[in-house]
Amino acid sequence: MNIVIGVSVLAVAAAEAKIKYYNLKKRKDLEEKIQAKVFSGSAEKPVIVGVSADPDGGDGERDGSVKVDSKDINGSFGAYLDLGEVGTPGKKISVSTHVYNKNSSYVKYTLVLYNVTDDRVLAQSPAKALDVKKHPEEKMTLDYVTTENDKGDKVELRWVQVSNDSTARDIFIDNVKVEVKKP
């Protein structure tokens, strides 16, 4: 009888999979959760590098960040955060992140909520360019209301580098917050 109860509990837990809540502000937390990835093409995977000196970004100066260090110019690459699986449809995933550029060159990127299971974009920001002299930092937000088609699907938050013409084009991620709310 215990085995049947255990299986029932596992089935209920799997049916109620949820998007993970995150409020990552510290270098150590960002390094643990954010992963480098090649999204398409034959690029060498970037490297996630911890950074101590970062701007305020709404969470305090010098609390740490990560650099998505480009290693190649072929393909589409950047970083991602695993958000888990969509449980109950009709919930709003709200994301905010502060990114910056402290390199001497510009970097262009976009923020994407991505359904890994169905291989499709759920929400995407316009491409943004960060230039250390003109516009070195940016707070980005995305919202998406889950649908019945998303139920049980794995979702990622992606920082996708659009400027892949030089390995000097790196994205720095200062913080990220993910919440699930009623729309």
Mean pLDDT: 87
Q: Can you tell me the CATH class?
A: Mainly Beta
Order of helices and strands: HEHEEEEEEEEEEE
How far is the N terminus from the C terminus? 41 Å
Descriptive report:
It contains 2 helices and 12 strands. The protein is mostly beta strands. It has one domain: Sandwich (Jelly Rolls). Strands 1, 3, 4, 6, 10 and 12 form a 6-stranded antiparallel β-sheet that branches.
Give a quick summary of the entry:
The chain has 2 helices and 12 strands.
List the keywords:
183 residues; mainly beta; Jelly Rolls; six-stranded antiparallel β-sheet; 2 helices; 12 strands; 11% helix; globular; disordered N terminus
Please render the helix and strand layout as text.
Elements: H1 2-15, E1 22-24, H2 27-33, E2 35-40, E3 47-51, E4 65-69, E5 76-85, E6 92-100, E7 107-115, E8 120-124, E9 128-130, E10 137-145, E11 154-161, E12 171-181
Antiparallel strand pairs: 1-12, 2-5, 3-4, 4-12, 5-11, 6-10, 6-12, 7-8, 7-9, 7-11
